[in-house]
Amino acid sequence: MHDVRSVRAPSMLRLAAASLVGTAIEFYDFFVYGTAAALVLGPLFFPTFSPLAGTLAAFATFGVGFVARPLGSVLFGHIGDRRGRRPVLVASLLLTGAATVAVGCVPTYDTLGAAAPALLLVLRFLQGLGLGGEWGGAVLLTAEHAPAERRGLWSSFPQMGPSLGFVLANGVMLVLSAALSDAQFAEWGWRVPFWVSGVLAAAGLWLRGSLTESPRFLEVRDHSRAPIVEVVRHHWRLVLLTAGGLAVGYAVFYAVTTWALAYGVERLGVSRTVMLACIMAAVVVKGCLTPVVALLGDRYGRRPLCLAGCAGAALWMFPMIALLSTGQPLLMFLGFLVALLTFITMFAVIAAYLPELYEPRVRCTGAAVGYNLGGVLGGALTPIVATAVAEGERVPWGVAAYLTGVALLSLGCFALLPETRPVPRLAVSAVTE
Length: 433
Description:
There is one protein chain. Helices cover about 80% and strands about 0% of the residues. It is built from 16 helices and no strands. The radius of gyration is 21 Å and the shape is globular.
């Protein structure tokens, strides 16, 4: 049995920084695949397809990572609820890093034939499996150490990880895209960002090695024997509502960072460098504002900000598509920026909100499953649906309609969830009370 009194309170800044860096590395791995799928994987691994079909096939392998994420949340959530949050951080980072490096080594279709896309599919699945465990471990370790009145702020550090990971992934792609010819980039340049992952993963493992276990986990005397069974039996409604609520955030983010990138390059004729620069600039601003929004969540509540983000997304999707269709860098940047600000209005507070909804004995599994199921609903389908819907249209209003519909669905889900702030301790799920 654990003695909570022997646990020394860690430096919140050091803990938050370690969670941020590790999450950034894992999302770097995840995003670099999405960028490669939008730019080069179609012709390299599906050369017998038409350009549109090749892009759809590449996005399908991209989507497999999202399908794997809930499975990863079940696997690593079980470890997190039974053995602790800290082991999850190490194991998930190791798995995702190894799979990403391996993607950079897979021969193309010209060398291996059908085995090449099959290997790509397997490695993408392993990436998603690792990332499915990462979020729960990183967020809970930070949230369960943080003081209740500033839990939103400290929990927002892991939420900045996706922005940093995206900028790193696309920054490397941008440099290579500008420095290499199209032939060089297609031949070997696209592989370099995947190989870089090995160095980043090693650094992340070193940084996370000194973290201490969550005090809230150590306080639990009766750990669940089968966390996923308990979550399905007693918290299924909460899981479905959080997944539906988060769907719009994923849909908006991947519409901007993945589908819009492919659409701008292939349909609008905008250079790869310009599209990456516009998207990256919007992501940087979004990342910098994350802790500011989180502070608002500590003051005014989690649920009001989630509702505001959903409403903003519903109102902005048609203007964003109109601005994207101009092909003008500044207008595209404006469209992307406002869209990502609606996204972060929700996701800056989610890292505090989801853990507060679940009791400690199943928190790692419940929060992670809800979070990653939202990724399947919003992230896996959006690039595929948007690419298909945009075909043949001068201005892809169908994409705007789809995203608006997802936003309204998420708005309804958040409206049915309770508020959790302020709380002196992480609360037992209000849904089951």
